[in-house]
Design goal:
17 strands; Nucleotidyltransferase, domain 5; globular; 5-stranded mixed sheet; 8-stranded mixed sheet; 18% strand
Length: 529
């Protein structure tokens, strides 16, 4: 009830003020009285809850029923907002359109968390100046891609530092068709049982044609290599890395980050190449599935990949995390544990510590913003994919925790897949120009088959020799070459690293980890820098 009162109070205030300012300032927009919204629209069912049969064909009857239910629950309020936004985009009223995009989705988050935040004014000039400054500082060229779904089209808006925005209205991508295609993609990659098939390519190519194809000329002309997606509901669960042009995945050309709102991103760059990590996790739980690879994961991160401290099982507590950060202001915090993002209010979503669950609403108690954490990694997340509230909980992780960047998984990935990706991510974090590029390189290593399981070991083909030659003064890389724990051996002659898997994982039938199930689940939330 409290959240509902807050939402309607904010809505009425914004609507009354919009009428006042339109009359007094003569804004170039036709104001239409918004239809009454369904007050239950903020708590909706899973968008993609139908079951994919064994033959990998969508259950059309179940799908149609789910679409009808989903559309009815969203009500008319969302449609009205998007029509106003589309009018401004079509008229080239960029500042008004950007404010509608940014503030509408910020209001979604504030309503979900039951919090009130000051309205932020956003301008095209401000966004372009921010991008230009970070492009110069990092040597990477970034672009913001806004996606807004309408009943009869998908609105795609590209903002870069150098040229006017490019707006595309994709009539073919009607909301129900768009959601159906997104659902098909997710249902074909988020299950370990489907890792032998390539049925995901059809929806991955279709989404690429709608979202990326119209932008290619401008992206190529400006040599963009980093994309920041600010997306509408129903699209926030899509792992953009897996979109496919028929020849390669999107991640093979661009690094990728996601945010509910660009204005929520901390526009600062901090190199983490020499930053220590606080790594904590658990391999056994009372009411959760075990994570047998976690001891190897923590040891690998803090002894072979970077320097830092690790705490396994009993010491993995909220109080100890706070205490360790008070002793040393770690800028990187790695949590190898379960986390769940579920339908309903934030108190139904959590991060699992050894002795307790930390609810999403209590994430601020960790004090990760004082001193500030630049990177938070949660390596075993699971989200109610396609559910609006779960999307808000997952997408708002960086905002709620107070950190710049979060790396987390949309669905729970197998232990061996998580270990493989984290091994490479922390290795590339020492050489990549920005955090998003480190995640990109790790995902490429997996999809190219440079990581495999062989004789009870995780075998990684590396370019460690080249790393050492090209970065002779990088202490982290030299430590990686010189240090060797009992479970890791380096063969620099053939650039190969082998990590012994725990006994529970040595008899797996999995031989390669190239399928998107293993690597596309991991996404970067918040700042890519």
């Amino acid at each position: 009830m409290k959240n509902r009162i807050l939402f309607w109070g904010l809505f009425c205030s914004v609507f009354i003020l919009s009428i006042f300012f339109s009359n007094s300032r003569g804004l170039a927009i036709e104001h239409i009285s918004p239809p009454l919204a369904n007050p239950e629209a903020r708590s909706i069912p899973n968008l993609w809850a139908w079951v994919l049969p064994e033959d990998e064909e969508i259950n059309e009857e179940a799908e149609a029923g789910m679409m009808d239910q989903m559309m009815a629950n969203y009500g008319n309020w969302d449609n009205w907002v998007r029509e106003q936004m589309a009018t401004n985009l079509q008229s080239g009223n960029w500042d008004q359109a950007l404010n509608q995009l940014e503030n509408t989705w910020e209001l979604d988050l504030q309503t979900f968390y039951g919090e009130k935040a000051p309205r932020r004014e956003v301008s095209l000039q401000q966004l372009q100046q921010t991008l230009a400054g970070l492009d110069q500082e990092t040597g990477q060229k970034s672009a913001i891609v806004y996606l807004a779904s309408r009943p009869n089209s998908l609105e795609v808006l590209l903002v870069t530092a150098e040229t006017p925005p490019a707006r595309h209205s994709i009539a073919e991508a009607k909301r129900d068709v768009l959601f159906k295609t997104a659902g098909q993609l997710l249902l074909r990659i988020d299950s370990r049982e489907r890792t032998t098939g390539r049925a995901y390519l059809t929806p991955a190519r279709q989404l690429y044609r709608w979202i990326i194809n119209p932008l290619i000329p401008q992206l190529d002309r400006q040599q963009i290599n980093n994309l920041i997606f600010v997306t509408d509901y129903g699209l926030r669960s899509i792992p953009m890395a897996v979109l496919h042009d028929g020849q390669q995945f999107l991640i093979e050309k661009y690094s990728i980050a996601n945010s509910p709102s660009f204005s929520m991103i901390n526009p600062r760059f901090r190199s983490l190449k020499e930053s220590p990590v606080l790594a904590m996790g658990a391999s056994t739980f009372i009411n959760q599935e075990p994570l047998p690879a976690v001891p190897v994961e923590l040891r690998m991160i803090t002894q072979e990949r970077v320097r830092g401290q690790s705490f396994l099982n009993q010491p993995f507590t909220v109080n100890n995390l706070i205490s360790q950060r008070q002793r040393q202001p770690f800028e990187i915090v790695h949590l190898a544990t379960h986390a769940g993002f579920n339908d309903g209010s934030p108190d139904r979503s959590y991060i699992q510590f050894f002795d307790s669950q930390l609810l999403l609403n209590d994430l601020g108690k960790l004090g990760l913003n004082d001193p500030p954490v630049s990177l938070l990694v949660i390596s075993a997340c699971q989200s109610a994919i396609g559910n609006r509230n779960a999307e808000l909980g997952f997408g708002g992780l960086a905002l709620k925790s107070g950190v710049d960047t979060v790396v987390a998984s949309l669905w729970y990935v197998s232990d061996e897949g998580t270990l493989a990706l984290m091994s490479e991510f922390y290795r590339y974090l020492r050489t990549a120009p920005i955090k998003a590029q480190a995640l990109r390189q790790a995902q490429i290593a997996m999809l190219k088959g440079n990581i495999r399981i062989e004789n009870g070991q995780l075998v990684i083909q590396t370019d460690l020799g080249n790393d050492i030659a090209n970065n002779p003064n990088n202490n982290s890389i030299n430590n990686l070459a010189n240090n060797s724990a009992n479970n890791l051996t380096n063969n620099l002659a053939n650039n190969q690293t082998s990590i012994a898997l725990p006994p529970e994982l040595r008899n797996l039938n999995v031989q390669n980890l190239t399928h998107p199930y293993y690597w596309s689940s991991f996404v970067m939330l918040g700042s890519p820098w």
